[in-house]
Amino acid sequence: MTVRVLVVDDEDLVRTGLRVIVDAEPDLTVVGEAASGAEVTPLVRALRPDVVLMDVRMPKIDGIQATRHLLESVPEPPRVIVVTTFENDEYVYDALRAGASGFLLKRTRPDAMVQAIRLVAHGDSLLFPASIRELAATYGRSGGGLAAELTAREAEVLRLMATGLSNGEIAAELYVSLETIKTHVGNILGKLGARDRTQAVIAAYESGFVPR
Hints:
Helix content: 40-55%
Protein name: Response regulator transcription factor
Low-confidence stretches: none
Number of domains: 2
Strand content: 5-15%
Structural class: alpha/beta
Domain HTH luxR-type: 143-208
CATH topology of the largest domain: Rossmann fold
Keywords: DNA-binding, Phosphoprotein, Transcription, Transcription regulation
InterPro entries: CheY-like_superfamily, NreC/VraR/RcsB-like_REC, Sig_transdc_resp-reg_C-effctor, Sig_transdc_resp-reg_receiver, Tscrpt_reg_LuxR_C, WalR-like
CATH superfamily of the largest domain: Response regulator
GO molecular function: DNA binding
CATH architecture of the largest domain: 3-Layer(aba) Sandwich
Mean pLDDT: 87
Number of strands: 5
Distance between the termini: 39 Å
């Protein structure tokens, strides 16, 4: 099954480079390009990509606004990966809070970039614990009440999610089945109103449930 990718960046050279990287893979294809955030939602409706590579800093409508509008207005929206020049950037954190599944640096190696696209296309998140912790500590807002919403086991699973462990790794850590962990993760996302693991972990940091 070919993963369909939409490339969004206001620089022609960057879009061209990303297209070359993606189209070189037999299981990935670029179905369209956009030069501004304003073009994203109409193109997604027309082209139905699985993943959007979204530049975070663009004039007029940036990647944060484009991500938020896309996820709020399109049924079954694609996954969004923010592509950025700077790792410790408030724009990146706000895009993750808006619903992006993760971020990549523009200097990321091509092999790592295409693997990230595959990962996100199959429903996972690009969770970099150290980076997200640093972003949350610098730009995070304060919340509360998270611990009261979760069972003891769900709380334990969320803490392990925040360390970057996969479902399989969490299952091994807790000596339970993979299906059990998937159930816990689904319950956590539902209780927190989180689209994926990235949003759940951000909520854990912002509530103080996981120390920043």
